[in-house]
Amino acid sequence: MRIILLGPPGSGKGTQGDLIGQKYGFPKISTGDLLREAVQDSTPLGKKAEAAMNRGDLVSDDIVMQMVEARLAQGDCQKGYILDGFPRNINQAHMLEGIADQRVEVVLDIRMSEKKLIERLSARRICPQCGNIYNLSIKAPTEPGVCDVCRAGLVQRQDDKPEVILERLRIYHQETEPLIAYYQKKAKYHPIEGDRSIKSVFQNIQAVLKTELAKSNRSEAIR
Ligand code: AMP
């Protein structure tokens, strides 16, 4: 099953993507994580992407597409995958459709009010070592400032600073929100209410995926 996690920054795509991955066994591909890794490793691609990321702008479609295409070609993606943070605009959606046999089956759009998004992003902390995500209000680490998994010191993402958050939300409305109508027309779109506990959002997602999996099994059987 191929799943797109749409939804604004801070809506919980990363956390829900991890839970879906654990339950259904599909790899989660976060373009944000791939880009941050490239920046950290100072690769040529990372060097090109860094300035746009720090401003809260989108990285160029070509750079992102190059990364996504290479990742989707790997063996673990052949049965399905979860895309977190991609596509981010209509052009990227077209580019994804251009990759052979990469038909997206389910689009999950985690919805949340702007006020809540700002609160969540401001409270987010990440582990620079293992990538685990925390939130000081709803998913705090056991020991303040320390990753539960690998004990590294937690940090705030550069683009979770207040002025950059507002720019990211502006870009989301301008570039990414039009994808809602785009996928609604293709009847793949499922809105998910994101302003609830992690567990209850995941229950809602599981209910949608159960129906969609049954549909795709039925059509496989017919083929
Ligand atoms: P995220 O972790 O998804 O919030 O992404 C962090 C940053 O990485 C974004 O603000 C963009 O600068 C960049 N980025 C991530 N995914 C994409 C994408 N699909 N297209 C362009 N830029 C992206």
Give helix % range: 40-55%
* Rg from Cα: 17 Å
Q: What coarse outline follows from CA principal-axis ratios? A: globular
Each distinct ligand? adenosine monophosphate
Q: What is the overall number of helices?
A: 9
The N- to C-terminal Cα distance equals: 16 Å
Secondary-structure arrangement, i.e. CATH architecture of the domain at 2-26 and 79-112 and 175-222:
3-Layer(aba) Sandwich
Low-confidence blocks of residues: none
Q: What is the H-and-E element order?
A: EHEHHHEHEHEEHHEH
- Largest β sheet strand count, sense and barrel closure: 5 strands, parallel
Annotated CATH homologous superfamily of the domain at 2-26 and 79-112 and 175-222: P-loop containing nucleotide triphosphate hydrolases
What portion of residues belong to β-strands?
5-15%
Query: What is the topology, as strand order, of the major beta sheet?
Result: 2-3-1-4-7
What is the average per-residue confidence, as pLDDT, rounded to a whole number?
A: 92
CATH topology of the domain at 2-26 and 79-112 and 175-222: Rossmann fold
Structural class: alpha/beta
The first-level CATH class of the domain at 2-26 and 79-112 and 175-222 is given as Alpha Beta
List the helices and strands and how they pair.
Blueprint lengths: L1 E5 L6 H12 L3 E3 H10 L3 H12 L5 H12 L8 E4 L5 H9 L7 E6 L2 H10 E3 L6 E3 L26 H15 L1 H8 L3 E5 L4 H25 L1
Parallel strand pairs: 1-3, 1-4, 2-3, 4-7
Antiparallel strand pairs: 5-6
The chain binds adenosine monophosphate.
